[in-house]
Amino acid sequence: MPDTQKTKLDSKLKQKIIQICENKIRQKGDNVGLSFYAFFANKNDDPDTLMQVATWWIQTHRLDHFEKATKIKQLIVQD
What we know:
By secondary structure, this protein is mainly alpha-helical.
């Protein structure tokens, strides 16, 4: 896959992702894994944001379907 423009997430979305990661870590421990779907309700009511996060997850960072919440939080903070 060619190197494409890196997708950046807006600060409000970053805060939401950090909060969800922290909640999952607090509930299930440091080894808890999640997919990018963890940041959305079980309905497609915001497809643009879903695609933005999917692009960040899949193309920008080339992550597997499930990743540790600690890793996702670290990537979000570094972005």
